[in-house]
Amino acid sequence: MTNPKIGPPCGLGLAEVRFQQVSKTYPPRRGSAPVQVLRELDLQIADGEFLVLVGPSGCGKSTLLRLLAGLEAPSGGEIFVGDRCVTDLRPAQRDVAMVFQSYALYPHLTVAGNIGFGLRRQRRRSALQQLQDGLHRASRGLPAPLRFPSGREARIEARIQEVAATLELDHLLDRLPKELSGGQKQRVALGRAIARQPAVFLMDEPLSNLDAKLRAGTRTQIVELQRRLGTTTVYVTHDQVEAMTMGHRIAVLNRGRLQQLGTPTELYQWPSNLFVAQFIGSPPMNLLPVRSVSPGQLQLGGRRFVPEGPIAEALLQWQSKGGAEELNGGLRAEHIKLAPATNRNLPAEVCHVEGLGNEQLLTARLQEGDHLVQLRAEPDQQLVPGQTIHLEVEASGWRLFDQSGEAIPRPEPIAPPGREPVLPELS
After folding, report:
1. Contact (CB, 8 A) for 316 and 324
2. CB-based contacts of 402: which residues, under 8 Å, 6+ apart?
3. Pairing state of beta strands 326-331 and 286-292?
4. By C-alpha distance, which of 243, 178, 242 is closest to 215?
5. SS (H, E, C) the chain
6. What is the mean pLDDT of residues 399-420?
7. Least C-beta-crowded within 10 Å: which of 10, 136, 389, 391?
8. Spatial separation of the C-alpha atoms in residues 265 and 323, rounded to whole Å
9. pTM (2 decimals)?
10. pLDDT score for 261
């Protein structure tokens, strides 16, 4: 997609999205209890931001999207787009466009008809205007002197051509959906959404039906398109790669509650609890039972470790406030490395080896404590199940969680005197 014609929507106010104490409960069925999907959720999405919603099935991701689109009504709370409360507005009044997982194309309409569908229904038309538009479309194939003019239809057709060129669909405008590939159908669904120039894009797992190669290419197209348009976008996915590479920020949901909101780097490096630590990242974070012992030290089995970096300060603060000794120690796969056999390194047995081409993913069992860990190794290292190896832990890689699963507080960075903190750019 290299056509730069389409710009940001004109004449629109800020498209910040806010959910305030939003709840959604479905009524009981056949004697079952009511199902509470969202629980007093607060979430604010900045104007022009690309926010990704992730979480396990049933956590409320798609429900949140449907509430914003107006396809469902909340049980409590309010929803704002810009400075407008849209909680009680009909979907057509909310200035949002949704791209569905199933594409939801009209099978009897061509690509051009699908892209222009929303444009033709944005405003009410009189019977005379409808007749004029219909005559214009019916006479398009006739010589110019015999065509029936319609300024509205001419503007819609120009917009369809503009969107189609941007999405590389201009050579497919006369085809029906059944004549398109999965990737082409997905681009038509995107085109229908962007043609209306809405204030907010909503995307519900739009790439889940595509194969891996096509998914990667379309992912790049969506990110590029959103960056160029600057339209506030809320994107639901199950895919770790999509979540980590597409959004400015990620919101992690579980059981209807917001677990953490932050940049992909923040969630990966500093998860707020054990759920986020295990959900974000592939493979998930390794978890080991450790004890907080002498100041600034952790004990795993019979070995002691001295964390470094911000986590060392967090541990000292935890100990000075009398925090519990029993902790969960988290380590990403890249923070455990193969090492020589020394007293300070952990002996382990290789359980499983996955060759990934550019690296190997090892599953190993620690000899002391019988705990399983995963780590990365170079692709040319000869490793087989049953082999004894030794592991070194990177001192700055520790992340610590209390027995309730919450991360021990991370020290706040201190801003230089007299200066305001610099916030990251969204683009």
Report:
1. no
2. 323, 324, 327, 328, 408
3. antiparallel
4. 242
5. CCCCCCCCCCCCCCCCEEEEEEEEEECCCCCCCCEEEEEEEEEEECCCCEEEEECCCCCCHHHHHHHHHCCCCCCEEEEEECCEECCCCCHHHCCEEEECCCCCCCCCCCHHHHHCHHHHCCCCCCHHHHHHHHHHHHCCCCCHHHCCCCHHHHHHHHHHHHHHHHCCCHHHCCCCHHHCCHHHHHHHHHHHHHHCCCCEEEEECCCCCCCHHHHHHHHHHHHHHHHHHCCEEEEECCCHHHHHHHCCEEEEEECCEEEEEECHHHHHHCCCEHHHHHHCCCCCCEEEEEEECCCCCEEECCEEECCCCHHHHHHHHHHHCCCCCEEEEEECHHHEEECCCCCCCEEEEEEEEEECCCCEEEEEEECCCCCEEEEEECCCCCCCCCCEEEEEECHHHCEEECCCCEECCCCCCCCCCCCCCCCCCCC
6. 77
7. 10
8. 27
9. 0.84
10. 97
Q: What is the pLDDT of residue 139?
A: 66
pLDDT for 211 equals 83
N-terminal to C-terminal alpha carbon distance within the chain = 18
The confidence score (pLDDT) of residue 140 equals 67
> Between the CA of residue 267 and those of 241, 251, 285, what are the distances in Å?
14, 9, 12
pLDDT at 153: 73
Contact 253, 261 (CB under 8 A): no
Q: What rounded mean pLDDT belongs to the chain?
A: 87
The tokens describing 163, both together, are 């969107």
Q: How many residues does the chain have?
A: 427
Q: The tokens of 44 are what? A: 């604010």
